[in-house]
Each structure stands twice: as C-alpha cells, then as structure tokens.
Amino acid sequence: MDEKQKIIKEHKNLINQIKKHNKYYFSEDNPKISDSNYDKLKKKLIEFEKKYSFLKSHGSVSEIVGSTPSNKFKKINHLIPMLSLANAFDKNDMEDFLKKISNFLNFKDKQIELFTEPKIDGISATLIYERGVLTKGLSRGDGVIGEDILENLKTISEIPKIIKGDQIPDLLEIRCEIFISKNDFQKINKKFANPRNAAGGSLRQKNPKETAKIPLKYYAYGLGAVKPMLFSSQSDFLKKINQWGFSTNSLSKKVIGLQEVEREHKKIDDIRSGLNYDIDGLVYKVNDLKLQQRLGNTSNSPRWAIAYKFSAEKAVTIIKDISIQVGRTGAITPVAKVEPVTVGGVVVSNATLHNEDEIKRKDIRIGDTIKIQRAGDVIPQVVSVDFSKRNKSSKKFSFPSKCLCGSHTKKEFSKSTKKEDAVRRCVKGYECKYIAKEKLKHVVSKEAFNIEGLGKKVVDQLWDLELIKEPSDIFNLNYKKIIELEGWGDLSIKNLKNAIEKSKNISLEKFIFSIGIRHIGQENAKILSSFFISIKEFSKLFDNKLRKEILKNLIELDGIGETQIEAIDNFFSKQTNIKITKNLLNNLNILSYTTKSKNGVFSNKKIMFTGGFENMSRSEAKSLAEKNGGKVLGSLSKKLDYLIVGDSKPTRRKVDQAKELKIRIISEKEWNKILNS
Ligand code: IVH
C-alpha cells in the first residue's frame, strides 16, 4: 500500500467512525463517546481534508450528520404550504418577471410596486401564535409537512414567546429565516463549514440545551396563516410585526420599475461583504397583498415573488479530464473533472459542460486552465478558458456518439422551437442501466414518492449491489442484506420500512410524475390527473387501441400540447415501460384526483375561454376558474359546460359552434358578476 492509499484508508475510517457515532447519538439517542471526543473526531476529519487536498471532501462534517434519517421530530402539516422561490440571475430575468406579473394582472404599462428584502442564507422556520402566544414552531420539511422544532426555536431569545400590542390577530403565522451572524460563527468552534450549516445543525439538535449553546438569530419575512387579516401590504405587515417585537430586516424597502430593481441589487451587493450575516440575493415581492393573492402560485413557487441572486462565486482551476454522465431522460452531459478547488466554501471537483456545442463554442480542452462558478445549489459550471495558459499537451475532447451503455444516441427535434435540441440523448429507456438508475432516483425523490432515508446515495448503493433494478423492487427490499451494509442499523431499517410503507399511498398526480414520462413535469402530471381522475382510467393508456383514442381527447386540455401527447404515446408504446409501470402499481394504493374547492361556482364544470377580458389576463381567468372548482379545456367539444366569451376579439367560429352544440355561453359581464357573487 503506498502512502496515498494509506491516507485514503484512514480518511474512510474516520468518516465511518463519525457516522457510527452519529447513529448512536441521533438515531438511537445513546451516545457512546463524550461530546468533546466526538468533536475531536470531527476536527481531525476537517484537518485531514485540508491537509490532503486530493481527498474527496465532504464540504462539511454536517453533511455527514445530515445523512441520518430524521425521525427525531414530530411531523406536523403546515397550515399553508411553505413554497420555494423562483430565481433570477440577471437583468433580463428580472425584466421577464416584471412582464409576467403585469401580463397576468393585465396591467399593461402600469408599474407594480415591489418590496425588496435581503435573502438571508439561513434555515427557514415558521412560528404560529394563537391569541398572541407562541404555540407551534416548525421547520420547512418538504414544504407540506414540517417538523416540530418549537422547543429549539424557543431558545432564540429574540423570538417573541408572547406578542404584546394592540389588535393582535387570533391566529398569526410568521415565516422567518434562522441564522448565525458571521461574528458568532467565528467564535463558535469550527465544527461547520459555513454559518448556514451551523444554524441548520443547531436547530436540529435533539436536545434544546444544545441549540441554546449556539447564538441563533432570526429575521421575519413572511405571513403564513392569519385570522383576521389585518394587513394590506408586505411593507405594512413587516412594519406592524416589527412594532410587536419581531426582528425584521432594515435593508428592506419599496421599489418600482426595473431601474430601481437594478440599483437596489447593486447597492446591496456592494455592501454585502460588510454585513454581519450571509445573504445570497434579494427577494423582490409584489407589495400589495391583494395583488399577491390574485397572482397566486405555480406548483412550487409564488408568482408574486422572485429571488434575484447575486453573481456567482468564481474560482480558477485545471481540467484533469472530461467524462460523460447520463441523466434520467437519457441526456448525455459532459462533465469536467477538475483539480479540487474551494468555491464559496465548498470543495468542487466536478463542473458541468452542458453539451457538446458548449464545449465547441468555448473551445474547452482537457488540461486547460478554466474559470468555474457556483451559484446556490446549482451544479458548478465551467465559465471560460484562459487561453493564455493553454499548453501543447491540452487535448480536445471527442464527444462520444454512443451512450455509456453502448447504445445509439440522437438529438431530438423540438416541435415548439422548430430546432434540433442541443442535448444528445440515449435512445433507450429502462434498458440502459445508467438511465434506469437515474429514473429510480427520480421515483424516490421529494416531489414523487418522497421516501425519506432513500436518497440518491442510497439508491446508488442498493443499485450497485443489485438490490434494486426497477421501481417495484423498492417495495420488496431484501432488508436482511441491507442491514449487513455499512451505515445501516436496526433503527434506520425500521425508519426506511416505515417511510416506504407510507409512500404506498400516493396521489395519482404524484404517481404520473414519478414514472418519468418525457415532458410530463409536476404541472402536466397535475393536469393529466385531473383528466383521468382514477388510476383505472389512466391504466387504459397501456392498451394500444384505447391509447390512441384517449390521446385524441388530451389535446383539449389546456397546457397539454402535441409534444406531451407524443411523449405519452412513446412511453406507453414500449413494452418495458408498461411492464415496469404495472409491476410498480401492484404495490400501490393510488388515490384518485379530488378537486380542492368542490363547492366553487364552477364546481366540476368544464369551461373554455375565447376573447380577452378588460380586467384580467387569460392566465388569471384560468386560475380563477380553477380556484372555483372548474376545469379549463383548450378545445371545444360536446363535453363543455360553458364558453366564456371575452369582449375583446372572441373567435366567432367558436361562439357559433358552441351555440350549435347548445353549450351555455357566458359574456364578460356575466363572468365578472359570477366571480363577484
Ligand atoms: S419569501 C413562498 N423572503 O428563501 C416563499 N424568503 O428560496 C416566500 N428566504 O424558503 C419566501 N430570506 O427560507 C422570503 N426575505 C426573504 C427571505 C426568504 C430568506 C428563504 C426562505 C425561503 C427561501 C426560498
């Protein structure tokens, strides 16, 4: 064994020791060594990784801590889901955001007042006050279900436990970001790579006394549930809660128009390094809460807010090699293996090169000195080559025409852009083992089956040992073999079993999303589930003849186009896909689609629009129809209940056809009246 191998072995040994003690401490609540000895182990690991840069760094020891399945906190449903934010990276993105909201609201040239706040890089939490008393405190969790971390939050002295003031709502939910100041981070012993990890680690302590040892702070930024509603705008809300004793960020302010947005962004970016807390951008929110409500949400994020990120952190390094990776849609992505380098506190050793055109365009070669950047959680990217440093030994990368599985690849033709796709894809599906493995990771992901304890790394591990090959195997795991593996114990097996059992009850929408049909993301899966309603109906797609008939009807769905229909047809015309889907179904209980607001004025009615409205955009009209229980179709058929005719340029032919079919026609005036009733 040479020196390097010895070091690698010792490194692995250290990690295993830490993992073992994590399990004793976190999962089994039965520590076998003292806190200070545990800290020594962690410190040793960090120093080791610093000293030998060739070791694959874990970024921070907290990553290892975080790998323990969390079963220590009680799960509680959020009163209102905690969504995430869409990102903007430059002026163009912000211009798009402004255009989109003003189109949705049909505001034409009228400017919309925004409120901007620093985006604190911490951990989100929500505080619930009943009659002014703090009664619940939850972590974000998966956004729908959070964890009860009330006792830990209570240790933060600045968080009001009782609100004093006038007119306190009976129910008040305050969304906030928990963080550690940069100063305090310097003072606490360096167990963590950055303040954010430290805040996360501290908040997730089982024992609140441990949380109390780390000086956590918070800023309130949002309103969750409230009764009665007393606020008119985001600025008004923050002002009032600040008077009631909540910490709010003083760098927040009202802005109007792209110019002010840009100016504010630059101003805060300039003072950013001098602030005593980490921020990674500014959040811009529509200030008026009524407008926020009109804008509503997409499946993951509100339409009324955006995170405008600061420019990414960059670093210079050398490309050691280029390899390819295969994604779940078969996309072949070139990846640069680089000399490890720290970017924004994290050691980076891989960076994406996107596709073969990008390599050609930037003339990127193996051996080149390059600049890489890393922004937020996105995969680090290669930005540019320093040609002055290129030497003769640099080597061009010849992009393989075959997938890693040996099969043929091709570039698809996009019907919507009428162009050939830049991405090359493996033509196989589950038959390609590289795709299959990625598909499995998608199946267990948060947005699909959401199986806690079965993350990407575990899927890799179980796949490599041939313990899972296709999704249905997840429900028939050989636990006897798993328990023998490094890192698994009785408790983690028990938790995994529970999580898998729980995931068997899955909504039709999530199920459709999980099987990974191309072009069917979360939003389209939702539309499809509202069309099929039950798994029985959806399963008719397995039959070639029935499928062709059903697909003809899908075109009437607003949001589903030719591309999606073709993708569904392709998916189910492959026998392997049908077999794998059926095998999976044998293990599940699929919950039929239910409309949330069954009692709305348009409850279970099929609606179509033609013509424009004076006061609202088509998108808002659609979202209102849906909020009121209606289903919006994209084409006219006998099944339609109402044709809503806007005053501006309705299609005559549609109106005539609707009359012929005896479909009820609703004028713009009537539509407004119905909505206001
Ligand atoms: S508003 C519906 N405002 O960023 C989501 N979020 O990426 C509304 N965050 O989960 C979020 N500072 O944890 C908002 N001033 C701020 C924020 C902020 C930090 C975090 C928050 C959220 C995440 C979204």
Helix and strand arrangement:
Blueprint: H1 3-27, H2 35-51, H3 61-66, E1 75-77, E2 86-88, H4 91-104, E3 113-120, E4 123-130, E5 133-139, E6 145-147, H5 150-154, E7 171-180, H6 182-187, H7 195-203, H8 208-213, E8 216-227, H9 234-243, E9 253-256, H10 257-271, E10 279-286, H11 289-295, E11 305-309, E12 313-326, E13 332-343, E14 346-352, H12 356-362, E15 369-374, E16 381-385, E17 409-414, E18 419-426, H13 433-444, H14 456-464, H15 479-482, H16 490-503, E19 505-507, H17 508-514, H18 522-532, H19 535-538, H20 544-554, H21 562-572, H22 575-585, E20 589-591, E21 606-610, H23 618-627, E22 631-632, E23 642-645, H24 652-660, E24 664-667, H25 668-676
Parallel strand pairs: 2-11, 19-20, 21-22, 21-23, 23-24
Antiparallel strand pairs: 1-6, 3-9, 3-10, 4-5, 4-7, 7-8, 10-11, 12-13, 12-15, 13-14, 15-16, 17-18
Helix pairs in contact: 1-2, 4-10, 13-14, 17-18, 20-21
The structure holds 2-(butylsulfanyl)adenosine.
